[in-house]
Structures are given as C-alpha cells and as structure tokens.
Amino acid sequence: MPVWLQEYRWRQTASAVYLSLPVRGLRVTPANIFCTDRYLKVSIPPFLFEAILYAPIDDTNSTAKIGNGIIFFTLYKKESAMWDSLTLANANKEKLQYLRENAVLKAHEKAKEETEAKKVTKQEHKKYALEATMKLEEAERKRIEDLKEKERQKVIKELELWKKQQDAAEKQKRVQKEGELHQEVEQLKEKKKEKINKTRVPNEGTSETRIKATKGCRGSYSMFSENLKEEQLPAPRSTATIKINFTSRVFPTALRESRVAEEEEWLRKQAEARRTISDDLSELEDLKEEEKNPDWLKDKGNKMFATGNYLAAVNAYNLAVRLNNKLPLLYLNRAACHLKLRNLHKAIEDSSKALELLTPPVPDNENARVKAYVRRGTAFCQLELYTEGLQDYEAALKIDPKNKNIEKDAEKIRHLIQGTTQDS
C-alpha cells in the first residue's frame, strides 16, 4: 500500500497556481513527476502524491523545481480565474478513475506526437546534410572539370600552334625542294641543248657525205629522231601527299586474329545494359537525376572505397545494382568491399555474378575477368577452401600469364594444399 503525502501548501493568482510539496529525506528526480492538464502525480515509492486539479492548466509551460527537500510547482492556468480549491471536490471514484485514465492516455498521445515530430525533424536534418554534402561534392566536381577544361584548351592551343609551325616548316621545305628541282631541270635542259647543238654543227669537207648518209643510212635518221624526242621530254611531276584512312576498331587485336562475333555480342550486351534502368523503385522519388545514374553511384562508391568507408561504398553499389543489375563492374567493385569487410560468402556471390555477366570472353573484358577470378579465389582461400581458390587463380593466370603477383599467390596456395595433405 502506498503512503500518501498529504502535507502541502498552495497559493494562487488569477493566472497561476504555486504549490509546495515537502519531500524531506527522499531522492526526487524528474522521472518521479507526472503532470497533464488536469492531473498531477508525484510517485516516490512507497510515497505517493496525487491531485485531480480544479481546472485545466498549461502543462507545456508549467514547471517543477526540486531542491532543499521541497518540490515547488508553478502551474499556469489555461483560463484566468480564481479556483475554489486546488483539487476537484465532491468527485466520485468513477470520475476520478476516468480522469486518471484520460490523463495517462493524453500523456501517451503527446509522447507519441513528440516522437513522430523528432523523427520527422531527424529525417529532415539527415536529408539536408545529404543534400549539402552532395552540393559540396558537385561543386568540387565542377571545379575539377573546369580545371580540366582549362588545361585541355591550353593543350589544344599549344597543339594548334605546333601544327602551324610544322606546316610552315614543311611548306618552306617544299618550296625549297621545288626550287632546287626546277634549277636541276633547267640545268639538264641546258646540257641537252648544248649536246644537240654540238651534234648539229656540220664539217665543211664532209657535208655532202653527211647529207648522203642521211638519205641512205637509216641509222643516222634514227639517232636524229631520238635527239628530237629528248628535247620534248615533259616536266617532272609536282609533289603531293596521299592520305590513307584505316577503319577504326574498338578492340586492339588484328582483324585476322579477332573473334568478330563475340566482340559484337559483347558490345551489344554492354549497350543494352547501359539502357536498362529500373524505374519502379520508391526510393527514386527523393533522388536527383544524377543520383539515378548507376555510373554516378559507381564513381561515388569508388571514392568511398578509396577513403576506406567500405560500408558506404557497399550502400552506393547496392542502389546502383537495384537501378541496373546488368553491369558487371558494380558486382566486381562490391565484391572488393565485401572482402575488406570479411563478408566472404557475399564476395564469392558478387564475383561469380560478375563472371556470369562478363561473357562472351573478349580482350576488352580481360582485366575485369582477371580481377573477378582473383577476388573469388581470395575469398575461397580465406574460407580455407584452397582447392577452389587455386582453380580461380589458375583461371586468372590463363588470361594473364605474365602477371607475376598472381603466379606467386598461386604458388603459395599450392604449398598450403601440399602442407594440408601431408598433415592429414
């Protein structure tokens, strides 16, 4: 049974009630006090004070001060008026019970509203912080892009200036060569003219015989005709440049060594994957347009991974996968995060999914397939499944046989397998 505290003092004004409750020798905390607009309760087991107030009060602005063995209440009235008494007089048990239950119910509803208000405020603060962070990142990205654009314009100007200098130098060399060639042609013509003139000068004593020889000797006529042809030689051709254009190719292999069908299938699958974006997610309503881009989320996850925030990187990759589950690099990067977080089974699942999407095997996805095999093999080895891990490392070596690091790790796994076999 509780011990009722009946000793108290109170006074009032038209707008407030002042109540003093002695609690000497008792330890009182704010948790011991319960107050609504019509109900006041102080519970310090086994002591109890309860009052059904005469009229409603403003429980939000009312206060309670604890000190020197006294609880001093300042209760502000909702309506300015003088009370006949502190508590409600001539109230039966049923009415008192109803007022108590109603007070508790109102307190619960008020607490629930305050909790919901705090939750909404917290969400708004969280959303504001996220938007502020994204704005800062966007400003930083724009600043970096501006710097890149300035550098690119600078390089383009320098390249154009260099091209002009090269063109001027080539033009000067071409003019010089044409002049030299023209000079050589003129010298050659002069030499031929001199030679022809020498052959045409007749000797006085042999003129008749030369004429007769000309008429009767066919060989002399042929020699003369050849000299005439030499005089009529055309001028040398002018120099020119022939441009040759080669058909552009996406893959570095030569056409005779390339698997055209597999390469075209890989390009087609990648193009379809880029166009595949899920629009039925409710989370997309609060996101901006760039936040709905899987590539933007992938870059954000890569930055978080680089700073060591692996959980945030996983969240970014998760949303990107929900937007587009056909991009193998999303699974490959998320597998790296799971390895860092020691989520080995998830790392194996993501690596396997990446390998499934990296088909058909072509030179363009060799690097990604090597990473997928190595990450899955690492997860197998950390789970002490060395045989499966060795198979993945050997598959990576088949793709990249010159990789010394993979070869060393594979050799270590072989030694571990041999040691395990000997121990057993």
From TrEMBL:
UniProt keyword annotation of Transcription regulation present: no
PROSITE patterns with a match to the protein in the record: CS, TPR
UniProt domain CS: residue ranges: 3-87
CC terms in the record's Gene Ontology section: dynein axonemal particle; extracellular region; neuron projection; nucleus
Primary site of residence: other
CDD domains (UniProt xref): p23_DYX1C1_like
Keywords: Cell projection, Cytoplasm, Neurogenesis, Nucleus, Repeat, TPR repeat
Record-linked SUPFAM superfamilies: HSP20-like chaperones, TPR-like
Biological processes annotated in GO: determination of left/right symmetry; epithelial cilium movement involved in extracellular fluid movement; heart development; inner dynein arm assembly; nervous system development; outer dynein arm assembly
Mapped TPR repeat ranges: 370-403
Stretches for region Disordered: 176-207
Entry keyword Cytoplasm: yes
Gene3D superfamilies: 2.60.40.790, Tetratricopeptide repeat domain
Biased composition (Basic and acidic residues): 176-197
Protein localization: Cell projection, Neuron projection; Dynein axonemal particle; Nucleus
Pfam families: CS (PF04969), TPR_8 (PF13181)
GO molecular function, one term: nuclear estrogen receptor binding
InterPro entries, per the entry: CS_dom, CS_DYX1C1, Dynein_assembly_factor_4, HSP20-like_chaperone, TPR-like_helical_dom_sf, TPR_rpt
Protein's name in the database: Dynein axonemal assembly factor 4
Species of the source: Phaetusa simplex (large-billed tern)
